[in-house]
Design brief:
The chain is α+β, with helices and mostly antiparallel strands. It has a domain of 33 residues. The chain contains one helix and three strands; from the N terminus they run αβββ. A three-stranded antiparallel β-sheet has the order 1-2-3, with no helix packed on it.
């Protein structure tokens, strides 16, 4: 529903039909009559940086290397095993160029 604009001038008489037209237009807006979606506007400027937040809880401690056992073949390191602080093991691979 399109609003019909009344251009009020000094001395105009306010009438029931003119007031009712305003009331009806307001009621239509309040009832949710909506026009077609418009085009997206341009992105606005970046807002200010907010305050620094509280420090979070400490994360879980990760495993680190506790020991390394190397394998030697003819005096050259050819592989090995690393033992971690959680007692898991990881193979060590040696590559040559």
């Amino acid at each position: 529903m399109a609003h019909i604009v009344n251009e009020w001038k000094t001395g105009d008489t306010i009438t029931a039909p003119k007031l009712n037209a305003i009331e009806n237009d307001l009621a239509a807006v309040g009832d949710g009559e909506q026009g077609p979606k418009g085009d997206a506007g341009e992105t606005g400027p970046t807002g200010p940086t907010g305050p620094k937040g509280d420090k979070g809880d400490a994360g879980a401690t990760g495993a680190s290397v506790k020991a390394i056992e190397l394998e030697l073949t003819d005096g050259a390191v050819t592989g090995g095993t690393a033992t971690l602080t959680d007692d898991s093991t990881v193979s060590i691979t040696v590559t040559t160029k």
